[in-house]
Design a protein that fits this description.
Layout lengths: L10 E4 L2 E4 L25 H4 L7 E5 L5 E9 L3 E8 L2 E8 L3 E4 L1
Antiparallel strand pairs: 1-2, 3-4, 3-7, 4-5, 5-6
Length: 104
């Protein structure tokens, strides 16, 4: 007798289409925090961030001043979705693009 696999990957409904969330990276981000003044991108636009999907980026937020490693998996005109490194593990979340001050 065959048993059905009841484990399903996370799915998110976005704008009427199914999107399967890729698994988080199997590795931790770099322990070295990038220097805020060197090699940073100021413009966090769809066109620029789309080039960094499925790779680690370091993000600085505008109002809160928080900064963290992110592994983006999807982006649209207003938001970026992905995993944020917090408490020694990857957590899935999203961030509005207008809240990003800089990224590396």
């Amino acid at each position: 007798m065959k048993l059905k696999n009841t484990r399903k990957r996370k799915q998110v409904m976005m704008y009427g289409s199914n999107f399967r969330i890729p698994p988080p990276p199997s590795f931790a981000p770099n322990v070295i925090i990038p220097n805020h003044s060197k090699n940073i991108q100021k413009a966090a636009t769809y066109e620029i961030l789309n080039q960094y999907l499925l790779s680690n980026i370091y993000v600085w937020l505008k109002d809160t001043g928080k900064s963290f490693w992110m592994y983006p998996v999807r982006i649209n005109k207003n938001m970026i979705y992905g995993y944020v490194w917090k408490n020694h593990k990857w957590n899935y979340t999203y961030i509005y693009l207008h809240k990003i001050n800089f990224f590396y």
